[in-house]
Each structure stands twice: as C-alpha cells, then as structure tokens.
Amino acid sequence: TQSTRPQRLLAAVHKKATRGNPRSVVKAIDEFCNQNEWAMNVGNEKGEILDSVVSETNPGCVLELGTYCGYSTVRIASLLPPHAQLITLEFNPDNAAVARQVIAWAGVAEKVRLVEGESGEWIPKMKEQFGVKTFDLVFLDHWKNRYLLDTKLMEECGLLKKGSVLLADNVVCPGAPDYLEYIRNSPQYKSQFFKSHLEYTKAEDGLEKSVFLG
Ligand SMILES: CCc1ncnc2c1ncn2[C@@H]1O[C@H](/C=C/CNC(=O)c2cc(-c3ccc(F)cc3)cc(O)c2O)[C@@H](O)[C@H]1O
Ligand SMILES: [Mg+2]
Fold first, then answer.
1. Mean pLDDT value of segment 180-198
2. Which of 24, 26, 71, 199 suits 100 as a labelling partner, its CA being 20 to 30 A distant?
3. C-alpha R_g of the chain
4. Residue nearest to atom 31 of ligand 1 (CA)
5. Is 178 considered catalytic here?
6. Cα separation of 206 and 87, whole Å?
C-alpha cells in the first residue's frame, strides 16, 4: 500500500536525525520539506520566531492546537524549562501516530502529552483531565477557521490569565481573517504581527502574537 506524506517525513527523521537530538529532528524535517516534499510544518523561518516567543515567555504550561507531524511540538518542547508541560491536540489518528514517533525520536516525550481528539471537545476538559490551571502559551496551527472559536472557548473555560500568550501561525496564508479581526480589535488583547514567509516558500505569511490582558 502507498505510504502517506507524514509516513515519508517520519522515515526521513529515522534516516537522517540522531535519536535524542531535537535539533537534528527539526533539521531533518526541514531538509525533507525543502528537498523532497512540501509539508505544512511551521518551518525554520517562522520556527525561529516561535522559538524566540517560547524563550521569552518561559512557559510552565503550553497548549498546541494541531500537532500534525510534531515538528513545532519538538521545537517548543526542546526549549521548555524542566517540569514544564506541553499538551498538543491532534484529531487525525494517522497524523497523531506519526507525531508520537517524531516526538519520541527527538527525546522530548516526557515533556509532551499528545491528546488524540478535537480541540472543541478537549479544551473544556483541560482542567479536570490534566490539572491545568491556565496556559502560559498557546500555539494555534490547526484548521484556520477554528482559531477564533477555540480562542473564545479558552476564554470561557478560564484557561487564559493576565499575560497568557497566543501565537497563531498562518495569519496571512492561508489566513485567519475572523481571528485577526477579533484579536486585533479586542481590548482584552495586545497584538503584534511578525511578518515572515510561508514555510519552504517565498510566499508571504506571518505569525500573530497576542497577550491576554485579563
Ligand atoms: C477541529 C479542531 C481540531 N482539533 C484537533 N486537531 C485538528 C483540528 N483541526 C485540525 N487539526 C489537525 O491539525 C492539522 C491541521 C492543520 C491545518 N493547517 C493548515 O491548513 C496549514 C495550511 C498551510 C498551507 C497549505 C497550502 C497552501 F497553498 C498554503 C498554506 C500552511 C500551514 O502552515 C498550515 O498550518 C492536522 O493534523 C489536523 O488533523
Ligand atoms: Mg501552519
């Protein structure tokens, strides 16, 4: 049977990356996507912006929406302080299966809890199921038409506190217009746009960083 792109990406990780070395896993995926097949990982250019936001936030509790193959999961987890936790939501079981192996190969599995399921179902369960109080950082990179819905859901569930940071991928391409309109006009957020490029291309894209003001 034919392999899928995520499976071919995983094979490249096993072949090219050093087990236990998260940076080599990130490098192997970027090489695969630059040389073999484009895939919707945040990529290295936007990834460096993600890294700087993670480092400056120094988060104890992170939520990622849309694991896909685990590329950004590995980038974030490799920068977390000891005992910090990253919960990542992925509802496609095939993608989740690949992501678990990418995360394990990178050696960051003990910092990551991959939850297989829909964000809409699991965000309301974060407190009771995982003992989460609030998230210090949320990375939004799932279906673009879910960014706004899930942000409002996190607000309603009391999962954001003063200073919580939302970082949204693809606010230019493919775009998340309703999310941008809401977050840039809401008095409850301070937003900043980081201009960049769509992963592995010259097309314009960017990340929106928004700090919840409480
Ligand atoms: C239901 C809520 C919910 N709950 C849990 N998991 C969910 C979920 N909704 C989605 N997922 C999973 O997340 C991943 C999807 C991510 C969606 N990402 C893009 O569409 C995207 C596209 C481009 C691009 C494509 C083509 C172009 F031409 C240009 C740009 C570039 C990018 O960086 C992109 O992130 C998959 O694993 C889903 O299974
Ligand atoms: Mg993306």
1. 98
2. 199
3. 16
4. 40
5. no
6. 23
